[in-house]
Amino acid sequence: MFKPLTRAALTVAVVTASLHAVSVAAQTMTVDQARKQIAPFYEMLNQPATKDVKALSEQALSPDWKSYSSETEFKGRDGFVAQVGGFGKLIPDLKWDIKDVMVDGNRIIVRSEASGTPVVPFFGVPPSGKSFKIMTIDIHTIKDGKAITAHHVEDWAGAIRQLSAKQFLTPEMDSVNPFPRTVRSSRPLGISHQIGDVGLVVV
User: Fold this and answer.
1) Model pLDDT for residues 31-47, shown as the tens digit of each residue
2) Who contacts 50 (Cβ-Cβ below 8 Å, separation ≥6)?
């Protein structure tokens, strides 16, 4: 004969079943669902000066959301909204083009290409009409339908190299050069710089 479950055993069984259900739900997120989940976030990053960034952030991010640029340094939702607004002024045509989306449980990994043409000095590089294109990686953690954290990295050093690049091959030399066009920058790779309300760090 089976013995009746005690209240403690029944509680454990219910909690275990609930956790299992949550785990299964997280693991069965499709790429299409993930893209829909993160759409408002990347909408913020595309020409942000023309968007209601605050409303989009509230749609996509939990109130206590944190954006990590390292293991310990992060911004909250309000700080991120201010930062994106600053980017909109610096780079009016800013574009964040999603190239790939992967899902791992309740995490969404996004590889993107960020591009734009700064209209004011950017990391100390004066505007010249040049544009940049760089790779970015974001890892979003989702809970209860909203992102609770983002861990991110952007190749801002690459952007600086592109914006401050100087051609030192003559057209004649370049025509016979077997390698891609070489550029160089007078700016070191490891820098930090503050631009208005936008605190950007390149390491």
Assistant:
1) 999 999 999 999 999 99
2) 88
Domains and CATH numbers, the chain: 28-202 (3.10.450.50)
Tell me: the pLDDT tens digits for 121-164?
Answer: 999 999 999 999 999 999 999 999 999 999 999 999 999 999 99
pTM (two decimals)? 0.70
Tell me the C-alpha to C-alpha distance, in Å, between residue 167 and each of 65, 110, 155, 159, 170.
43, 33, 21, 16, 8
Task: Please give the Cα distance from 44 to 41 (Å, whole number).
Answer: 5
Residues forming beta bridges with residue 70, ordered by sequence position: none
Which of 67, 17, 6, 40 minimizes the C-alpha distance to 201? 67
